[in-house]
Amino acid sequence: MTGKRKLFTLLLAGIMVFLVAISAGCGQKQSGSSSSELNYPTKPVNMIIAFTAGGSSDVQARLMQKYWDKLVDQPWVFQYKPGAGGAIGFAEIARAKPDGYTIGGVNVPHIVLQPLGQNAQYSIDDFEYICQVVNDPQVLAVRKDSKFKSVKEVLDYAKENPGKLKVGIVGTFTGHHLMLLELQDKTGIKVTQVVYKGAADQNAALLGGEIDVMIGNVNDVMRSLEQMRILAVASEERSKFLPDVPTFKEEGIDIVSDIRRGFVVPKGTDPRVVQFLRDTFKKIAEDPEYLKDMEKAGQPAEYMSGEEFEKYVREQNEKARELLTKFGLLKS
Amino acid sequence: MWEQIGAGLINALQPFNLFLAIAGLTGGIIIGALPGLTATMGVALMVPLTFAMDPASGLIMLGAIYSGAIYGGSNSAILINTPGTPSAVATTFDGWPMCRAGKADEALNTSLIASAFGGLVGTLFLLFLAAPLARLALKFGAPEFFWLCIFGLSTIAAMSTGNVFKGLVSGALGLLVSTIGLDPIEGVPRFTFGYYPLVQGIEVIPAMIGLFSFSQVINLVGSRQKYIADYKPNPGAFMRVVRKLWKDCKMILTRSSIIGTIVGILPGAGGEIASIIAYNESKRWDKNPSRYGTGIVEGLASSESANNATIGGSLIPMLCLGIPGSAVAAVMMGALLVHGITPGFKIFTDSGNLAYTFITSLLLVNVLMVLVGSILIKGTARVLNVPTSYIGVAVVALSIIGSYAIRNSMLDVMIMIFFGLVGYFGSRIGLDTGAMALGIILGPIAEENLAKSLALAGADGSVFKVFFTSPISLILIILTVLSVITSWLLSRRRGGDVKEAVESGRA
């Protein structure tokens, strides 16, 4: 008996050591080198994802990693910091040591709205922008058997019946929320906003008839085209995933609204490192194999350089500030 | 259809797929049994591996991990009173008393057979009734979810018969805790007391690990017991349990499995809710409800069959509608999409081969689980032969790692320790940790759906119509009322001691 007991204790201890080793592997030791020659990266690079493992942001970054590994010797170490709609993870990136060994994925308009509306612990000035990699436009969707056949019919109904149209969005201070505010602002309609926690419950609510219309993203509605009709897409040009769906602009409403994903490093990172990352990410983003992978995973790829991405974020910041002020939602 | 099922079975029986199923089950059971490591984590970790496999083999492995982990949670629930996954909370109610009474082998075998049974029932629903059930799930809107949560909360009254007052206070505290963080509708921070990290809210799992595992360790360490419970291997336990379940628990197993399947279908409600509801339903319909919680096979069978039945249920809307019924189903859907397979009613025709291979493999997995499980039980039961001091250290280490791993957040570790202390000191003054956990789990869902329902009522111009006219809502309301009345009647029957308990609760 005692022999067995010992064996078991040993086994238990072994498992614990193993687990501790795994968790310790996440925290990298810092060893800053200040030589004038750019010798980067000399150790694995942390990649902070502000959402859960297996989510869209994670899948996208994992696709990129495959190509990063072909170009650079040092791998990425993924760190998931989900919570508060990404605000926890984004703050983590902003606070990280600017030594080039922490890269993070960010989403727009999240990084614009959270500091404006929720007192988030970071601001858009805390980052150096590497590039944008995804542009997932918002769409307006109804049930396949809905009486609404076009955006115009939806708007007409909403105008005649103020507050009667039930519109589902995911989360507050999100791209969906912003788009609904903009839609009401630009067309003068007033609707009932129903906030869902995730795309899954929202899609179910639309199909079950609880809401009349929903704002979704191309990436999400692609799965449910059998049961949904997409009335319009809020992009500059038609989406290649939905070639038959008109844009809002074609329908006479000047709305472009989307969720964009990009990568950043903390402010103050060595400019040469930033340049290295910008060049490397550009190479990946333009690799035809990578683009094929992205399409397969239903990720609408759109590359934008770091400078352009930063400019875009600042424009969005002004636009959002104006809208939130108008609706009395501004916090700071 | 039968042809496709046959073809699917042949695919599932290929040696490589069988190997994946057994490996997945073994890994899943271990992950599930370790407090703090959950089914979602296990499946998410293995998804990248499936990219290199063909889609069917990948799904078989993920399904096996999922089934194994949900069952595995019962092992630690029974042996050390620590649910290995949140869906095993109700398993501690009767599993732990059985273990303490020296019936660990019976308890472990009961949970194994009940889990496999529940898993089979859930999968059969998935196989034969997926499309109609998916359509039914769509009828379940915000008001129905709200009433489901209220019904769930009403079981506090049933759970804490004899001390309803303390149960209610504990449940209310749980609800209060669940309001910390970002408001689900307005998106503004609440109860953060100026400490920003609290905006991420109190994550359910660290709070549960604290309430049930960490507090239990403090108990163990303080108890001066050298061993947790007496354990003597009990060779005939498996067959005895089979006979007992066949004789007394047919009804309980069937009802609990159906409850589990239905709760599983609903997005946002999973094994942790199903097992508690099933447990309380079994208790309610029993001739002598007071024996529940004293270590009886019936209680254990209810919660364990219900939580494994949620697996098949949660896959129904995922495959038919692209709407995952649980966090694990969401991860599995991600794996499907990467292979370019789009969920939808057409999945059974367009990718019929894959769909039927996957579903029949789940049937197979549940059968294999009995085999793999019985072998593993022989090892896990030996935990009882390990001195409590070692167990304590191991559980503390796992609790910390498990809490941290949910969101890689040290705050969650602090939350876990905090709730450990709440559980330890609270139970000395009569805090009902089960009721508190129920409040923490159901609070956010109830609040979110109440707010959505009110928004909908605003658009329809009638609160009454939204809340009280749908048939599903009415059924849930009636069940809630019944649930409260029956426990009131029960406590009246036992009269005196209840009054006393309430008095001492007020004192």
Essential attributes:
heterodimer, A: 332 residues, alpha/beta, D-Maltodextrin-Binding Protein, domain 2, 2 domains, ten-stranded mixed beta sheet, 11 helices, 21% strand, globular, B: 507 residues, mainly alpha, two-stranded antiparallel ribbon, 22 helices, 77% helix
β-strand number of chain B: 2
Can you give the mean pLDDT of chain A?
A: 85
Name the helix and strand elements of chain B from N-terminus to C-terminus, one letter apiece: HHHHHHHHEEHHHHHHHHHHHHHH
Strand order of the largest sheet of chain B: 1-2
Q: What percentage of amino acids of chain B are in beta strands?
A: under 5%
Question: Which radius of gyration of chain B do the C-alpha atoms yield?
Answer: 22 Å
Strand/helix succession of chain A: HEHEHEHEHEHEHEHEEHHEH
By secondary-structure content and strand pairing, the structural class of chain B works out as: mainly alpha
CATH topology of the largest domain in chain A: D-Maltodextrin-Binding Protein, domain 2
**How does the major sheet of chain B shape up?**
2 strands, antiparallel
**Total domains of chain A, how many?**
2
CATH top level label of the largest domain in chain A: Alpha Beta
Organism (chain B): Desulfofundulus australicus DSM 11792
Domain DUF112 (chain B): 18-435
Pfam families (chain B): TctA
Transmembrane segments (chain B): 18-47, 59-80, 112-133, 145-165, 204-222, 252-279, 315-342, 354-377, 389-406, 413-446, 466-490
